[in-house]
Write a structure and sequence with these properties.
Layout (H helix, E strand, L loop, with lengths): L1 H6 L2 H16 L8 E3 L6 E3 H17 L4 E4 L13 E9 L1 H5 L6 E8 L2 E9 L4 E6 L4 E3 L2 E3 L10 E4 L6 H18 L2 E3 L4 H9 L5 E7 L1 H13 L3 E3 L12 E6 L1 H11 L4
Parallel strand pairs: 3-4, 10-11, 10-12
Antiparallel strand pairs: 1-2, 4-5, 5-6, 6-7, 7-8, 8-9, 12-14, 13-14
The chain binds L-MYO-inositol-1-phosphate.
The site of L-MYO-inositol-1-phosphate has 15 residues, from strand 4.
Length: 267
């Protein structure tokens, strides 16, 4: 993996992601084409598709033969393959993006022979570029970042509401919210799993959980948080897979055990 990391064109990948974000920033929220996907309140805009096509085209030119596991346009059936694999959420926080709520990001996880190699999450509104290379730490705009070491009783917990699956998860969210509120300092919800997980990596929050989440939402931010000293598993404490949706628990070392004890029976 270290040899591959030496060759990995990180600067070019970052530049491609920054270029793709211009598509988001130039969007006209009042005239965008929007289509409904499966699941309640699950939408895809023309800009999700444009960003994904842009990224796939540029990454394919940069690393010929690479594969994709991405949220839009039917690419989401490809299991992790050999060689370079990009797991992409072109716009994480699509509903925020649709309504002009400037809390969305581009999420790109890069795997090599099924091992996480690099993760990047870029919030173009705040110009916050989170990144990490396997075994080499996590960064925000080039500055090293670390998860906090706070007691969960004063910590901030993000609760993902899994709105696309509300028939299955509605009561789980209600019970989760009560239990988390009784054991953490306060709760939050941003609407972008990647940004919520990255806020733990940068020390601004302490825990994130969501009962059902897709691989492209957590692939990049999960590596970034691990490289910042955090822990990322499913609710049962098992490592996350990338071939389908799963529960996701992301936390600082100081908050993980408290959160996992509360969540392990929820799904
Ligand atoms: C969203 C996640 C969010 C989750 C939503 C959706 P999208 O990603 O960031 O945490 O609750 O169901 O998966 O669809 O905006 O890329």
């Amino acid at each position: 993996m270290q040899d591959i990391l030496k060759e990995f064109p990180e600067r070019e990948v970052e530049a491609i992601i920054r270029d793709a974000s211009k598509i988001m920033l130039e969007a006209d929220n009042h005239r965008m084409h929007i289509e409904k996907k499966d699941g309640a309140a699950n939408f895809v805009t023309e800009y999700d598709v444009k960003v994904q096509r842009f990224l796939e085209g540029k990454f394919s030119a940069l690393l010929p033969g690479c594969g994709f596991l991405a949220e839009e346009e039917g690419e989401n059936e490809n299991p992790l393959g050999d060689g370079y694999m990009f797991i992409i959420d072109p716009i994480d926080g699509t509903t925020n993006f649709m309504f002009g709520r400037r809390a969305s990001c581009i999420s790109v996880g890069v795997f090599y022979n099924r091992q996480a190699l690099y993760g990047a999450v870029y919030d173009p509104y705040a110009d916050r570029f989170y990144s990490a290379r396997a075994g080499q730490g996590a960064y925000l705009n080039g500055e090293r970042i670390f998860a906090a070491d706070r007691d969960p009783s004063v910590g901030i917990a993000y609760i993902g509401s899994a709105p696309y699956y509300r028939e299955k998860t509605g009561r789980i969210i209600a019970e989760t919210t009560y239990e988390i509120l009784m054991h953490f300092g306060d709760i939050r919800r941003l609407g972008s799993a990647a940004l919520e997980i990255c806020s733990i990596a940068s020390g601004e929050a302490d825990m994130y959980c969501e009962p059902i989440l897709s691989p492209w939402d957590h692939a990049a931010a999960g590596l970034i948080l691990k490289e910042a000293g955090g822990i990322v598993t499913d609710y049962h404490g098992d490592p996350l897979g990338y071939n389908g949706p799963s529960s996701v628990l992301a936390a600082t070392k100081a908050s993980y055990e408290t959160a996992q004890n509360l969540l392990k029976g929820m799904v």
